[in-house]
Amino acid sequence: MNGDSMFRRRFASAASGAEGRKAALARPERRWTLRSVAVLGVATLALASCGDDGDGGDEPGGDGDMFEGTFTLGLMLPQTGGLATFGEGMSAAAELAVQDVNEAGGVWGNDITQIIQDEGAAEEPEVVQAAADTMISQGANAVVGAASSTATLNVIETLFNQKIIEISPSNTGVELTDHEFGDYYFRTAPSDVLQGSTLAEVALEDGHQTMAIMGQQTSYGESLAAQIEEVFTAGGGEVLTTEFYDLAQTEYAAEASAMADSGADAFVLVSYEESRQVIPALVGAGLDPQDTQWYFVDGNNLGYDEDFDEGLMEGVKATTPGTAPEDLFTRVDEFRPGTPERVYVPESYDAVITVALAAIAANADDQDAIRDAMFEVVTGGTKCTEFAECKQLLESGEDIDYDGMTGPISWMPETGGDPTEATIGIFEYGADNTATRTDERIGQL
Q1: What's the number of domains the chain is made of?
Q2: How many CB atoms lie within 10 A of CB 28?
Q3: CATH code of the domain in which 297 resides
Q4: Pairing of strands 72-77, 142-145
Q5: 211 by DSSP, 3-state: which?
Q6: Fewer CB in a 10 Å sphere around the end CB: N or C, the chain?
Q7: How many Cα atoms within 13 Å fall on the side-chain side of residue 62?
Q8: How confident is the model at residue 146 (pLDDT cuts 50, 70, 90)?
Q9: Same structural domain for residues 153 and 13?
Q10: pLDDT digits over 171-218, tens only?
């Protein structure tokens, strides 16, 4: 799928809605009243009723004061399954962002109410579906997650039907671009079009002419492998073989032998944590990273220092979307000591901040208004980089352009909730079997 086919046009009401919300925000007289809004865990609480419909103070615009209410945010990230290692850092960053928002006065005059649920493993759709049902029953305005593209595909229609804003920090599957039920869907990570293109370009620049690809049979694995192959072959290379495995597998000898027997001079593994079991099978089949150049992706760009003999992974290269904001990493480590991985930490932080700012800009417990404001807060206004600063600008009636921990965020109504540009980091493993960021590139659609 090329970039042009990915663009969609919708949300024509965004511009007109912005003026009314901006006028309400600009009114000088403000009244902030803390109130307690219970989060009810019952299935009958539909999203349409997540605001208080008692007195007139909670109506959009009202008497000119800032909207008052409780903004409920779900965190639906992996606590179990193949992405659980990444989920720890992502959850810590998201919860840190919630803390930052609340310390700056919260949303709609109150602290954010959090709902935390496990999205589970990609091969366990019932877990993420139960998580989504909980978000609905407890009145979530927005959900940060899921991490896995497969998990998101399992619940995107469910959340769409309730007009719940869904913003994923790590979905990269191209199937989510221009999705049938994507009107309330956003992501702070780019689609596989950008990462796959970068990895293929790096392999070509390294002088490789042939490639073998092994990956998990999921939306993530198949779409990323397809993009790598498309760009590699367009650049004059040839993919000799591609093998996919089921996530439920525990033995990989057949696929590993196919990789080794291909004779390719470059090898790509598209996986999650199961890479720790796949790698020994590959080496056992005769595909040694010291003899054939290996390439990893974000899902398996992990530390292997406690898994394999020193030097095994030396020279392996990897690509991972995202920036490297050391200040944020330090804060996350302080917030939750021992957080193992940093992948998609900045994207998780930005997911919370952007949707919180959108809710403030919407100045209403109105899902369509919040959805439209998601576009408004990241383009065309005064640049700001911290929640407190951005919130102050919004409350003074200014439009904002939030540049987050991931850098500029480039959602536009014409392109939907996909980032149109992103930083892709390039890594290389050393003798200690851990990867170091050696370069980065800006990819654009």
Answers
A1: 2
A2: 7
A3: 3.40.50.2300
A4: parallel
A5: strand
A6: N
A7: 23
A8: very high
A9: yes
A10: 999 999 989 999 999 999 999 999 999 999 999 999 999 999 999 999
